[in-house]
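Pilot study result, target chain (215 residues):
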Amino acid sequence: MIDQADEKAVDFRLRVKNLGKHYADMLLFKNVGFELCPGDSLAITGWNGSGKSTMLRIIAGLTKSSAGQVDFLLNSRSIPTDLRRRYFGMITPALSLYSELTALENLRFFTRVRGLVMQPGTIEDLIERVGLHGRGDDICGTFSSGMLQRLKLAQALLHQPLLLLLDEPCSNLDQNGVAMVEKIISEQRSSGITIIASNEQREIDYADRCINLSE
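Predicted structure:
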């Protein structure tokens, strides 16, 4: 198994081919395809209910597609589905944090779930990076919606993912929080792929390419 440090130096690609999704007689999208490599960023847009969030969940392996396939490629070799979670980080409105735990306890929990071994101070540094300075030991039940969004971003970044999946990343954030998201996306370009699902023009503009599921 290639360790995380080595993964940054190899050829990682995301390939989506002829992807489609329907529920009973309701078609969300069909024949969606693209290929991305580190440095690439893609926005997925479309009317409400067009399947933007579903698309991210299919890429993450959390929802099955009705047609087509998604491949994570490392040095041109497909990564098995059960190993893919080590390669992506995801933020979505559906992600739940534990309100009875502190911010640091939440991140430590996600660290254990991912089987990560973190260097001392790494999680604390990440708390600082997302703008939660001094709030690491506070119970998340006391956090505002914007603070919870910042913590969701922190959990997505825990393992320095090669693929960052962002569903409405600026939701509930103030101006400083939006600037923080912009910085994270900019930094991701140096080593990874970013996919943003949104109808907000500001978030769409973060990407180099756009797919409209309504077309």
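One observation from the pilot: Residues 41 and 194 are 5 Å apart (CA to CA). A full batch analysis is planned for the follow-on phase.
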